[in-house]
Amino acid sequence: MIRKNYLLNKETVGLMERYDSNGVEMSTVVEGENTFHVAQSRQEILNNTLNYFGLNLDGGLAAAKSVLGGKYRLPVCINAQQGMVWFSSRSFRKRGGIWFSYIHIRDLEEMNEKETLVHTSYGHCLPVSLSKNQLAFKRDQASYLHTTFHERSLGKKTFYYEPGSGITFCKEPGEAHYRVKGKE
Question: Which residues pair with 169 in a beta bridge?
Answer without folding.
Answer: 160, 180
